[in-house]
């Protein structure tokens, strides 16, 4: 199987990466408010190539982590994996929307997907924190303490993911509507 590079998709990847890096660095003072999961979901939704879709969150994280610095390797790996997963789900979400007649169900599915990945991120990264640190006892009480201590960050994660999912997918939908109306007006003339 030969891999063909689509210049439009490469340009879209570059734009999404630039947007992600600028927003992630700009939101430095707001812990866990990040555009990365929403960009990953949008990349998976828009890009045909799964490799390019996965590249968006991974490159955003790599570039911005050069500024922020590293952290515990097990936690870092879990962050990268869990923020790349929405890129894989984006294609399924698009297929669901193509077969969907209800705009309300389409909008709800985007929000539910974003929320689902917020929850998965919270569970996965805090499991990694618990298992790789000496802050918490290595038992169920320690794990529960770790999750409880992370609840304020979870609120921020949900807030950021819902804002950015709404912003990115809403902008995409509005742009698509605007372009369709412009194309229709050209055909009518």
Description:
- The chain is mainly alpha-helical and 189 residues long.
- The protein has one domain (7-182): Arp2/3 complex 21 kDa subunit ARPC3 (Orthogonal Bundle), CATH 1.10.1760.
- The protein is 81% helix and 0% strand.
- Helix 2 (36-46) crosses helix 4 and helix 4 packs antiparallel against helix 5.
- The protein is globular and about 65 Å long.
Features:
Arp2/3 complex 21 kDa subunit ARPC3; single chain; 81% helix; mainly alpha; 0% strand; 189 residues
Low-pLDDT regions: none
Number of helices: 7
What is the total tally of β strands? 0
Reading off the top of the CATH hierarchy, the class is best stated as Mainly Alpha
Beta-strand percentage? under 5%
The major β-sheet equals: none
- What is the fold-level CATH name, i.e. the topology? Arp2/3 complex 21 kDa subunit ARPC3
Overall pLDDT, averaged? 92
Distance between the termini: 44 Å
**CATH level-two architecture:** Orthogonal Bundle
What would you call the structural class? mainly alpha
Helix-strand string: HHHHHHH
CA-based shape: globular
Helix share bin? over 70%
